[in-house]
Amino acid sequence: MKNVMLSPWPRWYSTGCCLGCHVRTGTIILGVWYMLINAVVLLILLTALSDPEQYQLANDLDVMDDANMCIASVISLLMILICGMATYGAYKLRGTWIIPFFCYQIFDLALNTLVAVSIVVYPNTVQDYLQQLVRSSKCFTMKSEVSGI
């Protein structure tokens, strides 16, 4: 019988993530998923930008004007590019192509953590903002549900 060297710590070494898939496969799936979502967002933004009267995105607040929609479209295009780079890097085994996607994920985690902490620390401010938004909006359909919060 041949002596086979086994790793003394086999449980410390894992190549699986993303529901049991390999790391490379999970990165490709995640990159394609993000590209699809951003393509749908870009399609909605471009459709609303081409015919703003049909899509009443802005009411009294005028938050989504043409300049903001153009900026959102450029961000969506950049996200498609970054996700494409991550997918290509995982497919061709080039790790440096995945770095922009990783940086985006870190930025997204930091931003979401900041929002969550601010909601926990300042809940009255968030409730006041929601009530002000409900009062100022004429075409807000769920006024009674939000005002009950």
UniProtKB/TrEMBL annotation:
GO cellular component: endomembrane system; lysosomal membrane
Stretches of the chain forming a coiled coil according to its record: none
UniProt subcellular location: Endomembrane system
Lineage: superkingdom: Eukaryota
Transmembrane segments: 28-49, 70-91, 97-122
Record key words, sorted: Membrane, Transmembrane, Transmembrane helix
Topology of the protein relative to the lipid bilayer: Multi-pass membrane protein
Predominant location category: membrane
InterPro entries: LAPTM_transporter
The keyword tRNA-binding is assigned to this record: no
Protein name: Lysosomal-associated transmembrane protein 4B
Biological source species: Monopterus albus (Swamp eel)
Taxon lineage: Eukaryota, Metazoa, Chordata, Craniata, Vertebrata
